[in-house]
């Protein structure tokens, strides 16, 4: 029996495509303005994957950096969990292609479809497998290539999202107090249709007509999601803190999902934490869904903001609606 069964983040990594799509460029594509996007969301630009680049390519680039930071090889992994809603293909899992490209053994590799909460879901599942003793090293990834599932005629969605990937390698905690302290996962399907890709699944197979109506692209009633986001992200954060016997004042950094700066600001107010304690990159990347938390986490680790022993709170909410929180001592 391990003295400290929980998992710890051994290394992080991220990847974003080179191509930058600015707000002013979007002005020439849809009826929008840099002013509207900046004021309503906080986004200035986002990244777009290159032609031929697939979600698994971005995931593998982030994973290699996380493995290197952890001092591990692909052969050391016991499981791969990928949070994504924009996998290479509907079948098989994006995680299968990640395993193939990394050249791992025949380890369990699967996707988690929890939209923007996908990375925190994957982190929580990976932590459970390590806590139970079934795995020693788990690779958790958040990757999205949303530019391929956006309708660039719909200004209410196409300005919001971007492409990218982030990864973390989980391993045994080591008994020094560092590790995944608590996680909370939730889904409330009352608003399931408020954010969805309605066509292309078993409910509505694609036809020529539905393709013309962009039923294979993201549809969102943003106001519905906004209303519940602040409330649910705040309560999930408080629950993860309470599970670990901590309060918001004990947190060094919050790494929130980057969907809208207004949502993040309101969560900060409710948690009574200054925005300066939040790791923000929405201005540069937009909403990269499941990739947003691991990209922000990796940036803050690499630039020295987040240091060993600090307490980090993560919280995310997206389609489902699914939301999640995690408290990690780095
Ligand atoms: N440019 C200019 N005008 C726009 C744009 C645009 N890109 N988009 C919408 N508008 C207009 C609307 O048409 C509307 O005009 P009207 O008043 O004449 O009808 C007006 O701006 C206001 O629209 P709202 O939708 O009310 O704008 P709101 O302030 O709610 O902002 C937003 C919209 C940014 C989408 C916000 O609601 C939001 O961030 N929601 C939450 C999104 C989220 O968290 N999603 C979950 C994660 S994503 C995932 O899981 C994959």
Structural class by SSE content: alpha/beta
SSE ordering: EEHHEHEHEHEHEEEHEHEHHHEE
Radius of gyration: 19 Å
Could you tell me the strand content as a percent range?
15-25%
Bound compounds, please?
A: acetyl coenzyme *A
Flag low-confidence runs. Answer: none
Task: Provide key terms for this protein.
330 residues; binds acetyl coenzyme *A; globular; Peroxisomal Thiolase, Chain A, domain 1; five-stranded mixed β-sheet; 33% helix; four-stranded mixed β-sheet; alpha/beta; 2 domains; single chain
Describe the overall structure.
- With 330 residues, this protein is of the alpha/beta class.
- The protein has two domains: 7-175, Thiolase/Chalcone synthase (Peroxisomal Thiolase, Chain A, domain 1), CATH 3.40.47.10; 180-329, 3-Layer(aba) Sandwich (Peroxisomal Thiolase, Chain A, domain 1), CATH 3.40.47.
- It has eleven helices and 13 strands.
- A five-stranded mixed sheet has the order 1-7-6-4-5, sandwiched between helices.
- Helix 4 (94-102) links the parallel strand 4 and strand 5 (109-112).
- Helix 3 (55-70) crosses helix 4 (94-102) and helix 8 (222-243) packs parallel to helix 9 (261-271).
- The longest helix has 22 residues, at 222-243.
- The protein is globular.
- It starts with 6 loop residues before the first strand and ends with a strand.
- The mean pLDDT is 97.
- Residues 32, 36-37, 40-41, 115-116, 155-156, 159, 195, 222-223, 225-226, 229, 259-260, 287, 289, 318-319 line the site of acetyl coenzyme *A.
């Amino acid at each position: 029996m391990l003295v400290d069964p929980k998992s710890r983040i051994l290394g992080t990594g991220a990847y974003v495509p080179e191509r930058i799509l600015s707000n002013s460029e979007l002005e020439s594509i849809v009826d929008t303005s840099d002013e509207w996007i900046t004021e309503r969301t906080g986004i200035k630009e986002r990244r777009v994957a290159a032609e031929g680049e697939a979600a698994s390519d971005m995931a593998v680039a982030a994973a290699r950096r996380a493995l290197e930071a952890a001092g591990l090889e692909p052969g050391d992994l016991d499981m791969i969990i990928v949070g994504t809603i924009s996998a290479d293909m509907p079948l098989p899992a994006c995680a299968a292609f990640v395993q193939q490209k990394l050249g791992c053994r025949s380890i369990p590799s699967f996707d988690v479809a929890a939209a923007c909460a996908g990375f925190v879901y994957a982190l929580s599942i990976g932590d459970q497998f390590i806590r139970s003793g079934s795995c020693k090293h788990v690779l958790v990834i958040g990757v999205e290539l949303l530019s391929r599932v956006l309708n660039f005629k719909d200004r209410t969605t196409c300005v919001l999202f971007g492409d990218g990937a982030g990864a973390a390698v989980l391993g045994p905690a080591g008994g020094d107090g560092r590790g995944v302290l608590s996680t909370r996962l939730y889904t409330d399907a009352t608003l399931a249709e408020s954010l969805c890709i309605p066509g292309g699944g078993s409910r509505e197979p694609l036809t020529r007509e539905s393709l013309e109506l962009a039923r294979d692209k993201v549809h969102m009633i943003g106001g519905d999601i906004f209303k519940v986001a602040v409330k649910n992200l705040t309560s999930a954060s408080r629950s993860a803190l309470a599970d670990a016997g901590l309060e918001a004042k004990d947190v060094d950094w919050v790494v929130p999902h980057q969907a809208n700066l207004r949502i993040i600001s309101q969560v900060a107010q409710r948690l009574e934490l200054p925005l300066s304690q939040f790791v923000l990159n929405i201005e540069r990347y937009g909403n990269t869904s499941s990739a947003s938390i691991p990209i922000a986490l990796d940036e803050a680790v690499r630039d020295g903001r987040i240091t060993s022993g600090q307490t980090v709170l993560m919280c995310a909410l997206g389609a489902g609606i699914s939301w999640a929180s995690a408290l990690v001592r780095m």
